[in-house]
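step=predict obj=Phenylalanyl-tRNA synthetase subunit alpha n=132
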Amino acid sequence: MKKDIEIPVAKDVHVAVIREWNDEFLSKDWNAYLINNRADAIEMTIVVSKGFDDNKKTSTMRHGIGVVEPKSFKKIEFLQEEVLALNNEFFVTFFAENKLFEKRFLFPKHSISEKHLTNIPIIDKEGVLSEG
């Protein structure tokens, strides 16, 4: 019976944290983005995020992203500097190919920093790509 259960693997979907200029507050902020590098759109996309370590835990945030077109991205949320000292986890759930996909992305504590910046595909800005 277990051999008949198909668990689809979510490929070509990523979470990146980008360091970008905020004109309103005249500062550089960290923003999390969902990247769809697939050839098809992902639909009914939901992202659940939280920060945690051994002693602390942030509130759980839920974001209804909706449809993310192929080879595109959408902003998830702003990350405060204090949260970067925690593990930051993003659970992404979406429909594609008439199947439900789910994937966990993790940014280990202190991994979101200027020294870890790389060029992020699709967005074409410098940021940190998640493990996942």
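step=describe
The chain has a mean pLDDT of 92.
step=end
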